[in-house]
Amino acid sequence: MYKKILVAIDGSEFSLTGGEIALNLSERFGSGVLAAHVYDGKIHSHRLREMEPDLPEQYQEEAHLRHIRDSHNELIYDGFKALSKGYIEDFEKRAEEKKIEIEHVYREGKNYSGILEILEERQPGLVILGAWGLGFWSESMIGSTAVRVLRMAGCDVLIARRKMSSERILVGLDGSGEALNALDKSVSWAKALNKPLHIASAYDPFFHGKIFNTMATALSSERQQDVGLNNQQSLHDNLIDEGLGKLYQRFLEIGAKQALQGGITPETSLLKGKTIEQIVNLSVKTDPDLIVMGRYGHHRNDKAQVGSNSEAIVRMAKTNILVTEPE
C-alpha cells in the first residue's frame, strides 16, 4: 500500500510509539521507512541576542559578546546535531532488531515546516508523528506540530497516541468518495494487521429541530406564518429526518459490501447525533486501535485544509488516528 513511510522522531514517548507503528507497517506492507528529526537552533540564537542588553556590565563589550555568541552557537548547533543523531540511532537499533533498513534525514528549522519540506521532497504515501512531542502538556488535545502537519501534509497522516494491540479498526463513513477511499484503506490495514473492522455512520436528526425551535423563538407569529414554519417542521419530522436515517443506513450497506469484496466482514453501527460526538463516544466504548477518516466529507470546501469533523475527532479521540488523502 505504502512504498515509503516517513516517521518523525524527536525522542518523545509519542514519537517512539509512532516509530513502532512505522516498523510494524513496514513488515506488513513492505514499505521503506524514512526517519526524520527536525531541530530549531536559530530560535536559541535569536533569544540570546534579545537577552544581551540584560547581561552583566562586564559582558557588554563587543569582544565579550562576540565570544558568547560564538560559544553559544557552537554549543547549540553541535549539541542539536548530536542529539538528532542520537534519536535516529536509537530508532535504527529497533529497526535492526526487525531486520528493517531505514533511511534517515536531519533538518534544521521549525519542526512542522521542516517535516513539510521533507514530505514535499521525498513524497511518501504516509507520514507518522506523535500527537505530542517533548513539549507535551496534559491539558492540550494535540501538539501544534502534529496539527500543522495534519493540515498541510498532502499525504495520509497517522497521529500516534498509543501502541497497537489486538483491538479493532474503526472507520467513519458518510457516503462521500473520500470516506469510501478511507474505507478501502481501512480494509487493507485490517487485513495486513489482522484486526476486525468496524464501520460507523452518524447522522443528526436533531439539528433541524434546534433550527425550528430557534425560529419559533426569534420570529413573530406573522413571520412564522409567512415562512410556513409549522408545515416545514412537520415535513422535516416526517420525511427529512426519517429519510436521513435511511440514507445513512444505505451508506453502511454500501460500505459493508465494499469491505466484503475486499475480504473483510465488518461490524456496522448507525449512530444518531452529531458526528464528532458519536464517533468519539463510540471509540470510548469500543476502544479501537485506530480510527480512520477521510480528510474531507460531503461538505468539502476548496479553501479547507481538512474537514471540520476529521480535525475535531483527531483532537478529541484517545487513540491513533489515520486521516487519508483523497485519491
Q: Can you offer a commentary on this structure?
A:
This protein is an alpha/beta fold and 327 residues long. It folds into 2 domains: 1-162, Rossmann fold (3-Layer(aba) Sandwich); 164-327, HUPs (Rossmann fold, 3-Layer(aba) Sandwich), CATH 3.40.50.620. It is 53% helix and 17% strand. It is built from 11 helices and 10 strands. The protein has helices spanning 13-29, 42-51, 62-97, 111-122, 144-152, 177-193, 207-218, 221-227, 229-261, 275-286, 308-316; strands spanning 4-8, 32-39, 102-108, 126-130, 156-160, 169-172, 197-203, 267-272, 290-294, 320-324. The chain has a 10-stranded mixed sheet, with helices on both faces. It is globular, with a radius of gyration of 25 Å. The two termini are 13 Å apart. The model has no long low-confidence stretch (mean pLDDT 85).
CATH-defined topology of the largest domain? Rossmann fold
The CATH class name of the largest domain reads: Alpha Beta
Structural class: alpha/beta
How many domains make up the 3D coordinates? 2
Second-tier CATH architecture of the largest domain: 3-Layer(aba) Sandwich
The proportion of residues in beta strands is: 15-25%
Q: SSE order, as H and E?
A: EHEHHEHEHEEHEHHHEHEHE
